[in-house]
Amino acid sequence: MESRVDQPPGRDWRDTVRDGADLALVGILTVLASAPVLTAGAAIGTASAAVHDWLATGSWPTARQTLSRFGRGLLPGLPATLLGLGSLGLLVTNLVVLATGRVPGGTVGMVLTTAVATILLGYAAAIVVEVGRTGGTGWAPAVTRAARGCLDHPATCAGLAGTSLVALLLGVLVTPVAVPILAGYALAAVHAVARRRPVTRTELS
Predict the structure, then answer these.
(1) Could you read off the pLDDT of 80-100 as tens digits, one per residue?
(2) Backbone angles phi, psi at 153, to 5 degrees
(3) Which residue in 56, 74, 122, 194 has the most C-beta neighbors within 10 A?
């Protein structure tokens, strides 16, 4: 009788539960690492790199590799953090001013501002994915690659925007204690959307 190579066992519910727990842990650790605010860029980049590794190889990076990525990403992530906070503050201010009727054309302005915010949300998600593809650093090149990718594949950018918007709405609706857990799932979701049709054609170094 000819011998045969045994096929690897299929995934079952325990694998799904383990993946869910891992993503929840990623979200919790990311929020904790972002607590000082100025470390948010490094935390998000490191988490994005970890999710990319998991989706690409089926395994998570080691704790030593993750800490190394976080340390290398602190300075590069600082401008990204400040820019993100500034953009968020500007959008929120515009929405508040329009909603309170302090400027004319409130309804039209609200619609336009919301549309711009949604587009920027998708673009920001594309940047986070790109940073994850390069080991959690390289925010400046990621900005350019994400912009090019969104222009080349607007459907992917729209998918990223929609996914991010749903995650944001869920974050408002769920209990605050569940928001860190949701962060891990949201990060995996945007990576999954981007992998269906890569935002850019880049090779990992």
Answers:
(1) 999 989 988 888 888 777 777
(2) -130, 75
(3) 194
**Is the C-alpha dihedral spanning 107, 109, 115, 118 positive or negative?**
negative
Question: What tens digit of pLDDT does each residue of 9-55 get?
Answer: 566 778 788 989 999 999 999 999 999 999 999 999 999 999 999 99
CA distances to 2, 7, 54, 195, 198 from 192, rounded to whole Å, are 41, 26, 11, 5, 10
From the list 145, 138, 137, 142, the residue with the least C-alpha distance to 46 is 137
Q: How far apart are CA 50 and CA 66, in angstroms?
A: 7
Backbone angles phi, psi at 37, to 5 degrees: 75, -55
- Closest by Cα among 190, 191, 205, 196 to 55: 191
